[in-house]
Design brief:
By secondary structure, this protein is α+β, with helices and mostly antiparallel strands. It has a domain of about 120 residues: Sandwich (Jelly Rolls). It is built from 1 helix and 13 strands, in the order ββαβββββββββββ. Strands 3, 4, 5, 6, 7, 8, 9, 10, 11, 12 and 13 form an 11-stranded mixed sheet that branches. Strands 1-2 form a two-stranded antiparallel ribbon. A hairpin with a 4-residue loop joins β7 and β8. The longest helix has 28 residues.
Length: about 170
């Protein structure tokens, strides 16, 4: 049987096997697109610029713009503060970041659960200092991470500072 026939409202449609394969491939592509688009959308919400002092920028898709109070942030945004400048970032779960002067970070991942709690947040500190005020989240495993080129700090709920300065040795520990 090399053809498939269907009668619907007295209309006869003949589909060849190749056409069936094309329709199946298109449907598969559409479903996959919707699945990935939904995941990307879930990461695109839930972060915004709080208070900006001095010169602070947000780089998105290779374009740099001045950071402004209330600006929405997306996963992949690169945030930079200039000398004598600071910026706060509010996350959808109530956590907050304070980016110190001459610092750069990337919002790598920000996924919220349907109830608004944090599923996973990852930021990458490329240089400078970030203070993280992490809202307590349910569950056992830490789901808030700060990555630097040489370390990872993670938490479930606390306040902590992470700094990275290329070419400088770490501070001495007592």
């Amino acid at each position: 049987m090399d053809k498939v026939h269907s009668l619907y409202n007295n209309v006869r449609v003949t589909l060849l096997p190749l056409e069936i394969k094309r329709i199946a491939a298109s449907a598969t592509f559409a479903i996959a697109f919707l699945m990935f688009a939904t995941h990307a959308w879930a990461q695109a919400v839930g972060a915004s610029v709080g208070v900006v002092t001095g010169t602070c920028t947000v780089e998105r898709a290779g374009k740099s713009i001045q950071a402004a109070d209330g600006s929405r942030l997306m996963v992949g945004d690169k945030l930079t503060t200039g000398p004598n400048s600071r910026m706060t970032i509010g996350l959808g779960d109530g956590s907050q970041l304070e980016l110190n002067e001459s610092s750069t970070l990337v919002l790598t991942e920000n996924i919220l659960n349907p109830d608004g709690s944090r599923a996973s947040t990852k930021i990458t500190l490329l240089g400078g200092l970030v203070r993280s005020l992490v809202h307590t989240s349910p569950g056992g495993a830490p789901n808030f991470e700060v990555h630097t080129p040489n370390a990872v700090a993670s938490a479930r709920g606390t306040m902590f500072d992470v700094s990275y300065h290329e070419g400088q040795p770490p501070p001495a520990t007592p």
